[in-house]
Amino acid sequence: MSFNHFDGQGKAIMVDVSGKKKTLRTATAAATVHMSSNLLQAILDHKTTKGDVLGVARLAGIAASKKVPDLIPLSHPLAIHHAAIEFNCEVDQGTVEVQATVRAYERTGVEMEAMVSASLAALTIYDMCKGSEKNISIDAVRLLFKEGGKSGTYRAEGL
What we know:
alpha+beta; five-stranded antiparallel beta sheet; 4 helices
């Protein structure tokens, strides 16, 4: 297996994408937040002490998509053209699936932007609710979909 973030001497490098053509790139990623059904219902009813939990988490996720180069050392700064966060809530199961979609017309993909966006939105839910419930957990951070660029389209199994 070959990794393109290393030069011939094994030193970490930022991949040179200057010779690549810009194409429309899209990625959707998800993270799942687990909590009690009662807490999730309170979030949906806007009855938590911190206010609009999902609204704040949406803003955090969008902002996070623009900060990836500050967090992941070898990622490229990208001009993000679209970032959106959606929440799929299952009250009976006490789960919130955060889905982040990011789009840019760039030389490299936006998978990391989507994954960081989903992760930070999920972490924001945790942060805003940790005073109410200590056993909240986050898991299943994953890429659901990507298109654009040389490697083409990817869709996670079952989608």
